[in-house]
Amino acid sequence: MGLIFYTMLGAILGWIATIVRQASNSRALRRNVLSGIGGALAGAISSKMLTDKQNSLLGASSVEALLISLVGALALLASVNLLHRNKMR
Q1: Distances (CA, A) of 17 to 29, 45, 69, 71
Q2: What contacts 49, CB < 8 A, 6 or more positions away?
């Protein structure tokens, strides 16, 4: 349950990032959604290591894990979009 939750959280954050950046092509949407998913899962894994909760990815989600996964998703989204913006110029 937790893995599905973090995947959906990352996908929603990526979709919101696409709306905020007003990107109209499908590549930007795909890139943002995948970056959001990757960041949320990386945040969930790191929160598992930091808080020593054994089953945060498998079902039991905590507020700490949610906040760390949000920060991970937002950080990865920001870095990917920053790198992509510099590549376009």
Answers
A1: 9, 22, 16, 14
A2: none
Q: Map out the domains of the chain as residue ranges.
A: 2-88
Q: How far apart are the C-alpha atoms of 25 and 40, rounded to whole Å?
A: 23
Q: Distance between CA 49 and CA 62 in Å, rounded?
A: 13
Cβ neighbours of residue 47 closer than 8 Å, sequence gap 6 or more: 53, 56, 62, 64, 65, 68, 69
Which token pair is 18? 């696409």
How large is the C-alpha radius of gyration of the chain? 14
Look at residue 89 in the predicted model and tell me its pLDDT: 43
Q: Is the pTM here over 0.90, yes or no? A: no
Measured in degrees and rounded to the nearest 5, phi and psi for residue 43 equal -65, -40
CB contact at 8 A, 57 and 71: no
Q: Tell me the two tokens of residue 8.
A: 């959906």
